[in-house]
Design goal:
Blueprint: H1 3-16, E1 25-28, E2 37-38, E3 41-42, E4 60-63, E5 67-69, E6 74-77, H2 94-104, E7 109-122, E8 125-137, H3 138-153, E9 163-167, H4 172-183, E10 187-190, H5 196-207, E11 211-214, H6 216-224, E12 234-237, H7 246-253, E13 257-260, H8 261-270, E14 283-289, E15 297-302, H9 303-314, E16 329-332, H10 339-350, E17 354-357, H11 385-389, E18 393-396, H12 398-413, H13 417-435, H14 451-462, E19 471-474, H15 481-491, E20 495-499, E21 509-510, E22 529-533, E23 554-560, E24 567-568, H16 577-585, E25 587-590, E26 593-604, E27 610-615, E28 619-621, E29 627-629, H17 630-637, E30 643-649, E31 658-663, H18 665-669, H19 679-682, H20 686-702, E32 713-716, H21 736-742, H22 744-750
Parallel strand pairs: 7-17, 9-10, 9-11, 10-14, 11-12, 12-13, 16-17, 18-19, 19-20, 31-32
Antiparallel strand pairs: 1-4, 2-3, 3-4, 5-6, 6-22, 7-8, 14-15, 15-24, 20-21, 22-23, 23-26, 25-26, 26-27, 28-29, 30-31
Helix pairs in contact: 2-3, 2-10, 3-4, 3-8, 6-7, 9-10, 12-15, 13-14, 13-15
């Protein structure tokens, strides 16, 4: 075998066994290695056919399945069938996690943040120019945590077990405040910034919290509800510059103390207090979920719940095990009031990562809050958060990657000639590489047309996110197959889906980096197991495994294991029969394992992965008795070139469904006759709507939806649904009732 052949062997082994020797590959037979991936067998052929050789007793690398279904129909991670991961000594609580990390990684950078160097109003919106990252070491970070914790110990309204709510956007001071609270055995309550006045008032009162941490942005809401939160005795404001103004005056008028965080930190430095952390089984977090209707629910999460997830994430055989490396960087911009971001940060802090804080409006240079050079000359060449930090792991909601796809496609669409041909060829070869099972990402090494040009073009795009991303993880909603292939090709690394809920500490499942299986969320992590419960109404049953047309177990997803939360908070002074019923019905014990009943419908693939295929609450029975799964239709709609964000809508009094679509503006403008017109005009233009409807129906047919599932009519929405306009939850899930109410007139006009 010549040098090129040896290099090909190395490359294959590198993507098949990423940074580990325990991935579970076996070798068989005395044959030459040939080229294909079929089922679970991965067979290698070198790029040069003359390099085919015979290895002693080796031909086929057979990968163990990611997950394993036991004799009771329970799906486990293949590395821990029938057992859950053990929590490492000294990492049983969130306080011990950060304390141990600070001792072990004292001189490493723990956190970083960027200062705003210029602010300017543009069309009624504040936009900014950001500076470079400045960093704080683990030792320095721990000093601040100890000081703030000691400061909290001086407050008369707090005692061990009290709840303090953090009401703020994601930023460095958020986790600093949380760790300080856990140091003193306090419960950290979280409320989504997008829940508004009613949600904030409900959460504060139901939790009985006497103190709130707040940033300047959300201080305004607290000022408005100051007279309605009688148990709150103090608001600690993150930054001194936010201490003045009408909101502070309203809080003080309601006899609520307003204290600057730096002052509390300084008081603690002068009078150090003994740490009084909670035990592993005590509550660490009271997390209010946004929900889609009604009041938010307070989910009670123990230290042990999150610690078990941390242990599973750190396991060498986990999806992220090969990426857990001290000194790696992570961009924190998703809402910390949601369990996914909170759990990720605790896990990465525990491993000695550097957490750089950013914002959804500043991730890239083209993000909504970033000033552009034509708006301000000083904005030229400024970097987004990702490019400035250069993260190694990138976690995103699918909606974020959808925007990445649209933005990169726009960049590529402006190329011409040889550059365009090279990029098109690189994308085609990368998609083929994905389909072959190679998880390493990027175009093939010999993508045909000017591979150097392709590499340069893709490299420029990769630099938008720093150029060092080694894996993308998505969650909170399904990831489109095209998006997965595109991002994996352009950024040259695995793009994987995860699945979980607030009630199960988010990271229940993550697809393994070596597994390109699309539309799956992988096996359970080693802190979880999954059982499917028959749902006869929707015709999903475990017996579907024996149906030759289906061949897979199907049913409602039940998640079991040590990361399942305690339940929902019930306050006797604010009784809620629905919450009481949920605590009894949604948390059950089977064979000694406590499960949460998710309401999601899943199936186990032959490879041992979980696929989410439906949702019980999303099922609508049409006039003729057929059931339409709204989320299933929406997943298909996402593949339309016209779709930015879709919602399927149906009523039981009608024989068909319709689609409401926030469109991709550039695609609408490509419709003949659409040039030079406003988005609002395009969204009501019959010719444009007809073009969108034709594409939607073709896409849905290609996705093999039944005729009754395919939307017959389309409504185009000229204002994108966002958490800010309260059409989406904080993690970009549809709020169906508010969307329906806002667009009721449009719905009634076409749904006849």
């Amino acid at each position: 075998m010549n040098g090129a052949g040896a290099h090909d062997v190395f490359k294959f082994l590198r993507f098949a066994l990423p940074m580990r020797s325990d991935t579970g590959f076996a070798v068989e037979a005395d044959e030459p290695m040939g080229v294909q991936k079929s089922g679970l067998k991965i067979v290698w052929t070198p790029s040069n056919p003359t390099d085919i050789v015979t290895f002693p007793r080796m031909t086929t690398l057979t990968r163990n399945m990611p997950g394993h279904v036991d004799e009771n129909g329970v799906l486990w991670h293949n590395a821990s069938v029938g057992k859950f991961v053990s929590i490492a000594p000294g990492m049983e609580t969130l306080w011990s996690c950060i304390k141990g990390a600070a001792e072990k990684h004292a001189t490493r950078n723990a956190v970083g943040e960027r200062a705003v160097v210029h602010r300017q109003m543009v069309n009624g919106m504040e936009k900014v120019v950001m500076g470079t990252y400045s960093y704080t070491t683990y030792a320095q970070y721990m000093t601040r945590i100890n000081n703030l914790g000691s400061g909290l110990a001086t407050l008369p309204e707090l005692s061990k077990g009290s709840t303090v709510i953090i009401y703020a956007d994601t930023q460095l001071l958020w986790m600093l405040s949380a760790f300080a609270a856990w140091r003193q055995g306090l419960i950290v309550g979280t409320i989504y910034a997008t829940l508004g006045e009613d949600g904030a008032e409900f959460g504060i009162n139901q939790s009985g919290c006497s103190m709130i941490f707040a940033d300047g942005k959300l201080l305004k809401i607290l000022g408005k509800i100051a007279t309605k939160i009688p148990k709150c005795k103090r608001v600690v404001v993150f930054k001194p510059e936010d201490m003045d103004g009408d909101s502070v005056a309203k809080l003080k008028a309601a006899e609520i103390e307003v204290t600057p965080l730096p002052g509390l930190e300084a008081a603690g430095a002068e009078k150090p207090a003994k740490e009084t952390p909670s035990s592993a089984e005590e509550t660490a977090v009271l997390m209010y979920t946004s929900g889609t209707t009604g009041n938010p629910k307070g989910v009670l999460i123990t230290h042990a719940n999150i610690a078990s997830l941390v242990a599973a994430t750190h396991s060498p055989t986990s999806a992220l095990g090969s990426y857990i490396t001290p000194g790696y960087r992570y961009l924190a911009y998703l809402p910390l009031a949601h369990i996914m971001e909170l759990a990720v940060e605790v896990a990465l802090f525990s491993a000695g990562f550097t957490i750089g804080y950013g914002g959804t409006g500043t991730v890239t240079p083209k993000s909504a809050k970033m000033l552009q050079p034509e708006e301000y000359a000083g904005a030229k060449n400024q970097l987004g958060d990702a490019a400035a930090l250069q993260p190694d792991i990138f976690v995103a909601a699918p909606a974020v990657l959808d925007k990445v796809l649209i933005g990169v496609k726009k960049i590529f669409s402006e190329l011409t000639g040889l550059k365009k041909a090279a990029v098109d060829d690189g994308l085609a070869s990368g998609f083929a590489k994905f389909d072959s099972g190679d998880p390493s990402g990027g175009p093939s090494a010999a993508c045909g047309l000017k591979p150097l040009i392709t590499k340069i073009a893709f490299g420029k795009v990769k630099k938008l996110l720093g150029g060092k991303v080694k894996v993308f993880i998505t969650g909170s909603a399904p990831l489109g197959v095209e998006v997965q292939k595109f991002v994996q090709t352009v950024f040259g690394c695995p793009v994987r889906q995860g699945f979980g809920l607030t009630e199960t500490c988010a990271g229940t499942c993550i697809t393994l980096p070596s597994d390109n299986s699309p539309s799956t969320v992988g096996p359970p992590q080693e802190c979880a197991c999954i059982k499917l419960r028959d749902w006869d109404e929707g015709n999903y049953r475990n017996a579907d495994l024996d149906d030759k047309d289906i061949g897979m177990r199907r049913g409602e997803v039940l998640i079991g294991g040590p990361m399942v939360c305690t339940g929902y908070l019930e306050n006797p002074d604010m009784p809620d029969k629905e919450v009481s019923a949920k605590n009894k019905e949604e948390f059950i014990v089977i064979d000694g394992i406590r499960y949460f009943c998710t309401g999601d419908i899943g199936q186990f693939t032959p490879q041992g992965n979980l696929q989410i295929i439906d949702r019980k609450k999303d099922l609508v029975k049409l006039q003729q008795g057929e059931y339409v799964a709204l989320s299933k239709v929406e997943n298909a709609l996402k593949s339309s070139k016209f779709t930015m964000l879709p919602m399927c809508y149906a009523k039981s009094t009608m024989s068909y469904s319709i689609a409401l679509i926030c469109p991709v503006e550039a695609a609408l403008r490509a419709v003949p006759g659409a040039e030079g017109r406003s988005l609002k005009d395009l969204c009501v233009d019959p010719t444009v709507i007809k073009a969108v409807e034709a594409d939607v129906q073709a896409i849905c047919k290609a996705a093999k939806l039944a005729s009754f599932e395919i939307p017959k009519k389309v409504i185009l929405i000229d204002e994108l649904w966002t958490p800010e306009n309260e059409m989406l939850t904080a993690v970009n899930k549809l709020k169906r009732k508010p969307i329906e109410a806002k667009h009721q007139a449009q719905i009634e006009a076409v749904y006849i």
